[in-house]
TrEMBL record:
GO terms for biological process: mRNA processing; nuclear-transcribed mRNA poly(A) tail shortening; positive regulation of cytoplasmic mRNA processing body assembly. Forms a heterotrimer with an asymmetric homodimer of the regulatory subunit PAN3 to form the poly(A)-nuclease (PAN) deadenylation complex. Interacts with PAN3 isoform 1/Pan3L and isoform 3/Pan3S. Interacts with ZFP36. Its EC number is 3.1.13.4. Its cofactor is a divalent metal cation. It catalyses: Exonucleolytic cleavage of poly(A) to 5'-AMP. It comes from the Eukaryota. This is PAN2-PAN3 deadenylation complex catalytic subunit PAN2. Keywords: Cytoplasm, Exonuclease, Hydrolase, Metal-binding, mRNA processing, Nuclease, Nucleus, Repeat, WD repeat. A divalent metal cation binds at residues 981, 983, 1090, 1142.
Length: 1206
């Protein structure tokens, strides 16, 4: 084809391949948006080649519509299509040099073979004996079955694009050279080389009078049939030519026009020329952006115009184009790369960038040629005899045995009519909440969605558990404009699943303080696999783990301990604002063990509530402790990133996780022959095992929690195991004993079925009755009010009804004790008993190694059929956390439900009404255990992270460097200015719904990933020179590169083909963390979103955001481009965004702000008023006529003189 610079930026990944400038080795990935309908009729053979399955298609006679589609080679662009002139075959060639052919309208696979190892196929031409394939510098002729007839190589410097078959087996080849080659196909020899005045012959056509050559410069030349001398020339387009065709006395062309400096735009006017008078007639305006065009003559000279996005329009070259004549090829977001029309004019073929070929036809029984010869098809495999079947074989399916129906009795599957009559289902009743809130306009009723049913689904079989609470409303997403729900529900509001209500401003106007009046940070729930938010909070509020992971830093790209350290640092800095665990969860998704354990959920499972969250969080608990234990017990100790210093924690081989949770376990196996085998191991948690109920007993026996826990730790069970002495599997009694007590006892409750839930309910009932009896025998105690330190400053905290004393009524649904006494004696072994809270041990007991364990964490699975359920954590927050956040020293229980955080009574933490709140994980901590650990945090991130590092990209060269790393003498100090800008790509599109009033409601925002981060120097002799310009390598599927806004192109983030400075997210994250910890001040535009996606928390006094510097209250935010044009006379972001340019511009705007602020607040307010008045007049668009000289502007050269040498 021709010059494609003016096409849609989405074509950028494959565009260079069309004219030979693309590097070899491009590996386009499989597009997840591939039309499922294309693959429904496709089967993959062992070689991965698609084989179409014919389906019945209904075609309206005389109208073009899709007849068949086939995925030739998924994800590889189809660069050439051609209808065979001799047989009923459709040929295609792709970007990797592979060719395939399809037979007839059903597009059955006929042949498939490799034409060239690396180059794309640019033109296909069928001849009588075979098929010609043209690549960049090679011409091959192969039989239709794939055997090579001849190979004609050309010089390495040639760049061929088009073929034209003339009379007497002569072939013309043209390309980007200044000549056209004539080859004799009989001798396969070059006969002549015609020089052309205008180089770049990319398209050639022939009529009975002329050869027509289309040039990349936008011209069409008419040449003599014998001498090839130019007779006439049409200057069709000022930019470039994309296609043209000739029919009778008419020539029609489409192409691109020049716009500005080296910019091309697709021209919607087709140039039409009359070949009788050799002049142009009236141009034809069409409604699509033309990329291909062909004459499809029927009764008139009809034209087909096709755009790159799949729109096709038919029109007359001398008439007016009608919008009704437009149809669309369903490419599912892919771009059309090739097009051809059959010689019979009954079929059209389209090849797209996703590797699919679409066949359109105007007739259901289409023929590609007027008279086609018969195609030789491969003979089918004939089976002479059927194999002998041994029906005695136990794995043989009996359906293989033919059984004649000899009996006259009806078959069992032949149901009587009375049982087979369909009966219609009654429509479910309308929700009473809808009827209550409905407003009637005319005969139509309008009501807000009560959200008691999944979207777009009507369940006919309502679960029995839902019937009792049919009028339940979900927890309000926002406290604004919501009524208190009229019906009670057993799940309290604070335990229900919380969701964020997104508006036009995103999260800026969402009231998080309604859900969290403390200074602790919640976690946002909309990220994939955020079900583990509650367990992240649990780990954070264990002081030794918080210090351990913040001191840990290693060179692994995806290390959960490192990511937890980064996340805990954000939780430390936050003053009540929620944080995101996006980087931690991104690393979590890459751990193979997590995927193997089924811990990584699909989006559909999270949204529909199909995941069994209780069992899932217990598996996650076991996984994270094991993973942290492995990652932090390395012999050399956690070393600073590319540094030499070591952390004060864990420098020896012992892991803090092992010391904190580890318990040395002795497993003994006793065979009935008397042989005993003993093995020792380290376990980090224990699983509860409950007593089996006697089937003859209807009631469940009463058990003490301490007894069940002891039997679960010192587990004894019988199982079949291999005995070395007996040399066979024997019944074996396996016993487990522990040799030492852990500092934190972790328990997975394993309440995964109705049987265990009934056990908990019965034991809680026994305990409650005991408490009632005990209270009746004792006098009541006076109530003690709650402290007011829970609330934010200057806010009154209303906590009526919550007290510190524990009454019997508070012990309803409580079975687990708040404190346990545990010890290991030589005679009795492990001893566990309940212990009154607040009492201390005697000196003798402490000397014997007895310890008190206090309940510090309970994690619960909240059952809610409406929302699919959720996980919450009750955490006893220690004194050090309150001291850091609030300046007070006390302990308090809190409920953590994603971003909802609320203080609770200690009795509520131990209450489990298993009808809706099921226990999952318990943590008991040894009293004063943290005194045994070094709780100092030494920031392991050193200045060496800013020094020069190698790029991950294989093709990156030093000459292409866009930044100069900092020298040791340039290391930033507190208060230094740094210009920052980041660009992003989209991993998941947002999910939204349209309400009945036409407004849009965002259900789930798009998931973004940082793709490029740029930091420029803000002062010094090199002010404005970048010292970080990192492209972030990503292993996740990118659905939209947002090239128009980010400047990121497909391939920039791929280490195999990228020419950019490519790094890991962790590497760049450490650089930014070092700058933040140093105390630099970041200058940028819209930094709040940048830091949010990067997953960084920066204090407000370290951020200078030009969005807010030039903003008036209750007015709109102003774009960086408009501010740069208005204040700096710079025209930026004209085509795409460049983060270096944006960061420099933000620094210049800050300098301008300081200059304007010197005149006083009133003068600056006048400047802002003038800015807003100018913006309203121009509709906030930079005028095209008032273009600046970019970086060469007088104002820009005065600000950063040293940058111009970059």
């Amino acid at each position: 084809m021709m010059n494609y610079d003016g096409l849609n930026p989405g074509l950028g990944e494959y565009t260079p391949g069309l004219h030979g400038s693309l590097e070899a080795g491009l590996e386009p990935s499989l597009d997840p948006r591939l039309d499922p309908a294309l693959l429904q009729g496709v089967e993959l053979d062992p070689d991965g080649i698609a084989v179409p399955v014919p389906e019945s298609v209904h075609i309206l006679e005389g109208m073009f519509s899709e007849l068949s589609s086939v995925a030739a080679e998924v994800g590889i662009p189809v660069t050439a299509t051609h209808f065979d002139f001799q047989e009923e075959l459709l040929w295609m060639g792709n970007h990797r040099g592979h060719a395939s052919s399809f037979f007839g309208p059903t597009m059955g696979r006929y042949s498939s073979f490799q034409v060239h190892m690396t180059d794309d196929i640019r033109h296909i031409q069928s001849v009588d004996t075979g098929v010609l394939f043209l690549t960049k510098n090679n011409l091959k002729c192969l039989t239709r079955g794939g055997l090579i007839m001849f190979d004609y190589p050309m010089e390495e410097s040639t760049d061929m694009h088009s073929l034209l078959l003339t009379d007497n087996n002569m072939l013309l080849m043209g390309g980007l050279q200044s000549y056209v080659v004539e080859v004799d196909l009989n001798t396969v020899q070059e006969t002549q080389k015609f020089t052309v005045e205008v180089p770049g012959v990319a398209i050639m056509r022939q009529s009975n009078r002329f050869f027509f050559c289309g040039h990349t410069s936008g011209k069409v030349s008419l040449r003599d049939l014998r001498t090839f001398k130019m007779e006439h020339e049409f200057d069709a387009f000022s930019g470039s030519l994309s296609d043209f065709d000739v029919h009778g006395n008419l020539l029609a062309a489409c192409g691109f026009s020049s716009r500005g400096l080296n910019a091309l735009t697709c021209d919607r006017f087709l140039m039409v020329y009359d070949l009788r008078m050799m002049r142009a007639v009236t141009p034809l305006q069409v409604h699509v952006d033309p990329l291909f065009l062909r004459f499809i003559p029927t009764y008139t000279s009809r034209l087909a115009i096709i755009s790159q996005t799949g729109q096709c329009q038919f029109c007359e070259p001398t008439g007016l184009a009608n919008l009704a004549d437009v149809f669309h090829v369903n490419t599912v977001g892919q771009l059309l790369m090739s097009f051809d029309v059959s010689s019979s004019k009954q079929a059209l073929a389209f090849g797209d960038s996703g590797g699919c070929v679409h066949l359109w036809s105007s007739s259901p029984e289409v023929s590609f040629n007027g008279y086609s010869r018969e195609t030789e098809l491969a003979l089918p495999c004939l089976v002479d005899s059927l194999p002998q079947l041994d029906w005695n074989h136990e794995l043989l399916p009996l359906s293989l045995l033919p059984m004649p129906l000899a009996s006259t009795e009806p078959l069992l599957s032949d149901w009587p009519t009375s049982l087979a009559t369909p009966s219609p289902r009654r429509a479910p009743p309308v929700d009473p909440e809808i009827l209550r809130t409905m407003k009637t306009v005319g005969f139509i009723g309008y009501a807000p969605n009560p959200r008691t049913r999944p979207r777009n689904q009507v369940p006919y079989k309502i679960k029995e558990t839902e019937l009792e609470y049919d009028n339940y409303n979900q927890v309000p997403e926002s406290p604004i404009g919501r009524e208190e729900e009229p019906h009670l529900y057993m799940v309290p509001k604070k335990y229900r699943k919380v969701t964020i209500k997104y508006s036009k401003l995103g999260l800026e106007d969402f009231d998080f303080k309604h859900y969290n009046r403390t200074l602790f940070a919640g976690l946002e729930p909309h990220i994939p696999n955020a079900y583990c938010n509650c367990m992240i909070q649990v780990l954070y509020f264990l002081e030794p783990i918080r210090c351990l992971v913040q001191n840990h830093l290693c060179q692994k790209e995806f290390c959960l301990a490192c990511e937890l350290g980064f996340l805990f640092h954000m939780l430390d800095l936050s003053r009540g604002d929620p944080c995101q665990a996006s980087n931690f969860l991104r690393a979590f998704r890459t751990i193979p063990e997590a995927s193997a354990l089924g811990l990584i959920l699909a989006d559909s499972d999270e949204q529909t509530g199909k995941a069994r969250l209780g069992r899932l969080i217990q598996s996650w608990n076991r996984f994270i402790l094991t993973q942290l234990h492995q990652e932090t017990q390395e012999q050399e100790g956690p070393q600073a990133y590319r540094g030499s210093s070591t952390s004060p924690l864990g420098s020896s081989g012992e892991s803090v996780i092992g010391k904190l949770f580890g318990c040395e376990v002795e497993n003994s196996s006793l065979c009935r022959c008397g042989k005993e085998t003993v093995r020792s191991s380290l376990t980090l948690l224990f699983t509860m095992h409950y007593q089996d109920q006697n089937p003859n007993e209807k009631t469940i026996k009463e058990y003490d929690f301490a007894d069940i826990l002891k039997k679960s730790i010192c587990l004894e069970q019988s199982t079949q195991a291999w005995c070395e002495n007996c040399e066979k599997y024997q019944p074996t009694v396996q016993t487990r004993n522990i040799r030492c007590l852990p500092d934190v006892l972790v328990i997975n409750c394993e309440v995964n079925s109705v049987k265990e839930m009934e056990f908990w309910r019965a034991q809680a009932e026994y305990a409650f009755n005991k408490a009632l009896k005990k209270e009746a025998d004792e006098p009541p105690k006076p109530k003690e009010p709650l402290p007011t330190e829970w609330c934010l400053e200057d806010e009154l905290c209303s906590v009526e009804g919550l007290t510190f004393d524990t009454r019997a009524e508070d012990l309803r649904h409580v079975w687990i004790p708040l404190s346990l006494k545990m010890g290991i004696s030589k005679s009795q072994g492990l001893e566990i008993s309940n212990w009154p809270e607040g009492e201390e041990l005697s000196a003798e007991e402490e000397a014997e190694g007895v310890a008190i364990y206090d309940l510090t964490v309970t994690v619960s699975h909240v059952l809610d059929a409406r929302t699919g359920g959720n996980l919450v954590a009750h955490i006893k927050v220690g004194e050090t956390y309150h001291q850091r956040k609030e300046g007070v020293t006390h302990q308090q229980w809190y409920l953590f439900n994603d971003f909802l955080i609320e203080p609770i009574d200690k009795a509520e933490a131990a209450q489990f009404d298993v009808n809706w709140k099921v226990p999952a994980v318990l943590y008991y901590a040894r009293r004063n255990y943290h005194t045994r650990y070094d709780l100092r945090i030494k920031n392991p991130i050193e200045a060496s992270v800013l020094l020069t590092e190698a790029s991950l990209a294989r093709k990156q060269r030093k000459s292409h460097a866009t930044f100069i790393p900092l020298m040791v003498s340039e290391m930033p100090q507190a208060g230094d200015l740094v210009g920052l800008d980041a660009e992003f790509v989209t991993l998941n599109q947002e999910e939204a719904e349209l309400r009945s009033d036409g407004t849009k409601s965002t259900i789930k925002p798009s998931q973004m990933s940082v793709a490029r981060i740029t930091c420029v120097r803000g002062q010094g002799p090199n002010e404005g020179v970048p010292f970080i310009d990192d492209y972030i390598s990503t292993q996740e599927q990118v659905v939209d590169y947002l090239t128009q806004y980010s400047g990121i192109k497909p391939g920039d983030l791929d280490a195999k083909i990228s020419s950019k400075h490519l790094t890991t997210l962790k590497s760049t994250y450490l650089k930014l963390r070092f700058l933040i910890d140093t105390g630099v001040r970041f200058v940028g535009h819209g930094l709040q979103k940048d830091f949010r996606v990067i997953n960084l928390l920066v204090l407000k006094d370290q951020v200078i955001d030009t969005v807010y510097l030039f903003h008036m209250p209750r007015k709109r935010m102003i774009s960086l481009r408009f501010l740069a044009w208005y204040f700096l006379d710079l025209n930026i972001q004209s085509e795409t965004h460049d983060s270096i340019e944006d960061a420099r511009t933000a620094l210049q705007l800050y300098r301008k702000y300081l200059e304007l602020s010197r005149g006083g607040a009133d003068e600056f307010r006048k400047v802002l008023k003038g800015l807003y008045e100018k913006g309203r007049k121009l509709d906030w668009k930079v005028p095209e006529s008032d273009t600046a000289d970019g970086q060469g502007s007088p104002k820009s050269t005065a600000v950063f003189p040293s940058v111009m040498g970059m």
